What does this fold into?
Amino acid sequence: MWGVYSPLFFMNISNISKFFSICLILIVFAFLVNNYLTFAGDWPGAFTIYNSANIYSSIQFFLYVTAIIFPIIFLNYNKKLDNLTLANNLERVNDYIIRFGFWSVLIIGIIDAIISFLIIEGFLEQIIGKSWNIKFSNNSFRAPFVHFPLLFVSLIFAYYFKALNFYWLAFLVVIAEFQIVILRFVFSYEQTLMSDLVRFWYGSLFLFGSYYTLIKDGHVRVDVLYTNFSEKNKARVNLFGSLLLGIPLCLTVFFLGMYCKQCVLNQPIMNFETSQSTQGMNIKYLMAGFLIIFALTMMIQFIIYSLRSLEVIKKNK
It folds into this structure.
């Protein structure tokens, strides 16, 4: 009868877990949006509001405030929402993010490889002229005008095509390796873009597949204790492992990799970094983005683990 706004709300472990889960995810999303606005859009930053308050810093600061307030309002209007239902909903969000990643690497990998091939062989200049050939050779043009629209297309594909299986990512790697073997040993033809495509799809397989493997509980466990634990004790291990190891690791990737413009994740993305070879694909900066998707999906999955583990512990009291 007190409602979510009462202090008694935070005395319920189930309510705390739901608030923590939603709040943490929204804070990370706010961090990612602010990271883009600050370093790509030259906005002042959320916490400059104390020094030189303006409309831009206020908007950025308000994103974090919203990330904290929204879960309270949401849970107030969804009082019957349990941990398992929330976990299932979060898993659907995670599935969408991974499907988006899959379609992105598939479409961008193929299109960028074709463009690089046409440039290397001189076909693109013959088709659209020298000036446009120079533009497409420069990643400051290719990234925003080719890759970004394809990312938007991938968002749409990810929404409508939901029967994604990670065997397809492995199949892409096999296809990329197979074309290298055929072209190199049969036709004696080899270009840097061919190995770039393999690395592009291979990296996505490992980083996106980590989340999928975690869902299926397929990661190798080196232990002599866990296997013989009861269901309740296994849930306790998963709960504390997620809270003390999994989630902090993902947050470390975000904050150490993106807290400044020259950080290891921000710099290649902001500069549209490419490989040093002039005959390769222009997708190296996107591979840094793989780490962001990896950390985000793994963090959400660890939160899902925590919610489900709490329910198992509660059920086996």
